[in-house]
Structure formats: structure tokens, C-alpha cells
Amino acid sequence: MPAHEALFTKAARRHVARLAQVIAPAAAGLERKFLALLRKRRYGAVERRALLAISPCAAARLGSIERFLDQVEYHGRRLAKCNLSPDAAGEVLRHFDEMLEPLLQGRFGPSLEQLQWATLLALERAYYRVREEESQALFGIYRAGAEVADSGKLSRRLVRLLASAFRARAGGLLVKEGELDRELRQPLYIEQGTPGERWIADPALRGRYASYWSYPLNGSAAIQLGFPVPYPWLPRELELMEAAAEHFRKAAERALLLEEVERLAAAARQAEDDERRRIGRELHDEAGQSLLSLRLQLEMMERGADPAMRACLREARGVLERTVVELRRIIAALSPAVLERLGLARALHLLAARFGKIFSAGVRVSVSGRLGDLPPSLQQVIYRIAQEALQNAAKHSHATIVKLSVMRADKVIRTRISDNGLGFEAGVTEKPMSFGLAGMRERAALLGGKLTVRSARNQGTTVILELPLKSA
After folding, report:
1. Structural contact between residues 411 and 468, judged by C-beta atoms closer than 8 angstroms
2. Is residue 444 within 8 Å of residue 451, measured between CB atoms?
3. pLDDT exceeds cutoff 70 at 333
4. Which of 172, 284, 313, 468 could be bridged to 202 by S-S, CB 3.0 to 4.6 A?
5. 115/310 Cα distance (integer angstroms)
6. pLDDT tens digit sequence for 345-402
């Protein structure tokens, strides 16, 4: 049973119909008096039309309770968008009922009361539906701001959200490289065929709809919506548009700040890598050469020394040779020059071989797809994260087997490092390698990538790096 039918019995419908017959001949005069009261109370044109449309005179004109209550819900929505509450509307309608008393002379009391009650119920339902729709629209706007960092994507999503919220037939986004024209830097309501229609930028909108809204998001962008009927905005709709524009401005500022932070982080990372290379070169050219020269001198002294001194010199030479090996490891960790000379695939194999010599774990390397034409930035991030993951496996996991794989697909390159070590519990905050993971995630994020770590106690650890090829 429809909601309206449940409100009135057949007998009640007959009494309301008789009430309407009594009111109908006097409806015009009653409406004039009611309009005078509304003007005296400074209600606007939209509010006056809506209040007239929910009065008993409107019920008498329509001759159908269902049609009247549908009309009440429609105009109740408009009153809600004019910030007029159901209580305030009910208070005004009670003045209309006082105007009916001389006409009715105490008759039809129960029928009039039931009609009033049904009208207020429809107004309440319309009011809270409007507020619920506004809440959903605002939630969608705030969610979009939280989920979308790119201002272009955010503005297009706002167009879709607002077109749906205002029941517009179509929507578009006007974006200019410089500033918007002076006329577009303010809210515009435009009707078809008027001179203002030239400000509708999208040819798919202009000239096709009965009315348009244009609302500036900032100094260079505006949302434009098209409606199938003339539809001037109401106060609450204008407030919602302003809330959307304000949130867009804040989200756009946040996106710019994030871009600046990412730029500075990238610059800091580049400076760090440059400094690593400088230190690596100096260690190789200065300390490395000096140690090699010292080793040669020790070897020459060892040949001419007496047996007792020869043993001491041999031990010193052994310490020196181990120091040279350790220095080479440090230089390779600081500056992977092997990337520039041999490319990523060969550098990863050498990294795994060096790891296998120093630590007891065996490393299996698998490379699929072309890696030689990858930009240096991608190659360096993959190498660094593989290097850090192997170091973590050696220091913390006590693994015996480590698998390193790099696979290139159409749009992404995926690097996976897994071990059979001790692992750790994902919920433990004071876990080893947490600072290393932070650095790895930061390197991945700078190129628009994602780093995932999967681990469980005594079930090993898997590090997965995914980098979009377009990030280069």
C-alpha cells in the first residue's frame, strides 16, 4: 500500500473531499490574504510559492489527497533548501487555518486536523531527506578530498558528485591556464537563450539545457551544471556549492604541498645518493689505493724479515687484506657503480654473489623481461631496495635461502625478495628492520610505487616492490 493511502481511511477521504468542496469557492480570496501575510513576514518569492502550494487551498484545487501530498513533499524539499524548518512552516500554516475559521464555522474539525497532520508529516519527511542527501554529498566530497591527491581528478569527481546531488542532467569543468574571466569568478545562474549562455564553456552543455549553474572552484576553474528546466539555486544548494569549492581549494593546496614535499624528498634522496657516490669515490681513490700500497710494502718487508718478524708481518697483511675486502664491500654499498657499467640484471647477480660469500644464506636470482632500457632512477631504486632487503635478511632473519626476482610487465616492474628466516609479527611495532623498511617505502613512494612486506613468526619474510614504468 502506498504511504499516502495508509494515512486516510475511506471515510476520512470522503470528509476531506467535502472539506475541499467548501474551501474551493473561497480559495482565491484566502490565498490573497495568505500572500499578504507572507509578504508582511518578509518571506521570499520561492518560499511564498511553496507555502501556498502546501496550504488547504492547494488541496482543494488538486482534488486528490495523493497528488496534494506529493506536491507537499516536492515543495517541502524546496522549503528545506531555503532553510525553513517543518516547525516554522507548520506555524505559518496555522495562521492559514485561522483564516478558514469564518468559512468553516466549526465544521470539518477532524478532517482539517488530519489534513494538517498529513501535511506536517510529508514536510518532515521531505526535510530530513534533503538533509540526508546533503550529508551524503558532503561525505562524498570530503572522501574525494581524502582519496584523490591530484587536483584535476578531484575536480572531475566533484562534478560527478554535485551533478548527482543537485539532480543536474549534465556537468562540466571549465579550466583556464590563467585566471577566469571576471564574470566567471562569481556564482552564475544562466537560462537558455540569454546572453549569459556564452559563459558555458563546454559545447556539450551550451544551448542544450533550459538552465545552468556556474560556480568557481578557484581562480582558474569552475563547475558548470545543466538542468532540463529553469532551476535557480536555493540557499542551501548555494551553501553546499560553497562547501564543495572550499574543500576543493583546501584539497588542492594540500596536493600542492604534498607535491612540494615529494619534490624536496626526491631532491634530498638525490643529494644523499650523490654524497654516497662522492664518499665511495674518495674511499676508492684515496683510502683504497693507500691500503693496497701498504699491503705491497708489507709483502716486501715480509720477504726480507727474519722468521719471527715474518709471522707478525703475515698476520698484519692478513688483517689488511680483510680490511680491503670490507672496504670494497662498503664502497659497493655506498655507490653501486656496477649499475652504470654492467646494468641492473648483472648488478643484481653480483650483489647476490657478494651476499652469498659474506653470509651463510644462498641467494637465487631470477630476472625476466628487459631491464637494460629502464631509466637510471628505476634501476637505482630496485637495486637499493634489493640491497637493503638482503641486508635485513642477513642481520635479522637467519635465513638459509633467499630468493630475488625481478619481472617486467607492460605497465609495472615487480621486484620480490623472500626468505625462509625467522620472520616477525606484523603487529609488533618495535620490530627489527623498521627503519630500513621506512627508507625502502620512501624510495618506492618517490617514484609512485608501492612496497609491501609480508611476514609471520617463523614463516619468513617477503618484500614486494611494484614500480609503475610511467613514473620514469
Report:
1. yes
2. yes
3. no
4. 172
5. 117
6. 888 888 888 777 777 777 888 888 887 778 877 888 888 888 888 887 777 777 788 8
Residue type at 144?
A: A
Rounded (5°) CA angle 309-310-311: 90
pTM above 0.90, yes or no: no
* Beta strand pairing call for 450-455 and 401-408: unpaired
Q: Is 175 helix (H, G, I), strand (E, B) or coil?
A: strand
Helix H, strand E, coil C: the string for 207-246 is CCCCEEEEEECCCCEEEEEEECCCCCCCHHHHHHHHHHHH
d(CA 185, CA 405): 54
Backbone angles phi, psi at 314, to 5 degrees: -65, -40
What is the rounded distance in angstroms from the CA atom of residue 20 to the CA atom of residue 451? 72
Given a cut of 90, is residue 225 above it in pLDDT?
Answer: yes
The contacts of residue 340 (CB under 8 Å, 6+ apart) are 376
How many angstroms separate the CA atoms of 151 and 185, rounded?
Answer: 18
Which residue has cell 483564516?
A: 99
Least trusted range by pLDDT, from 183-192, 246-255, 317-326, 427-436: 427-436
- CA neighbor of 103 nearest in space, from 175, 19, 34, 163: 19
pLDDT at position 436 is: 66
Q: Which of 168, 178, 152 is nearest to 208 (CA)?
A: 168
Q: Are 219 and 191 in contact (CB under 8 A)?
A: no
Q: Which of 375, 392, 376, 471 is nearest to 437 (CA)?
A: 392
Asked if residue 266 lies in contact with residue 446, where contact means CB atoms within 8 angstroms, the answer is yes
Rounded to the nearest 10°, the torsion over CA 139, 140, 143, 144 is -150
**Cell numbers that stand for 258 in this block:** 604534498
Task: Sort strands 221-227 and 362-368 into parallel, antiparallel or unpaired.
Answer: unpaired
- What grid cell was written down for 101? 475559521
* C-beta separation of 64 from 35 below 8 A: no
* 166 φ/ψ angles, rounded to the nearest 5 degrees: -95, 5
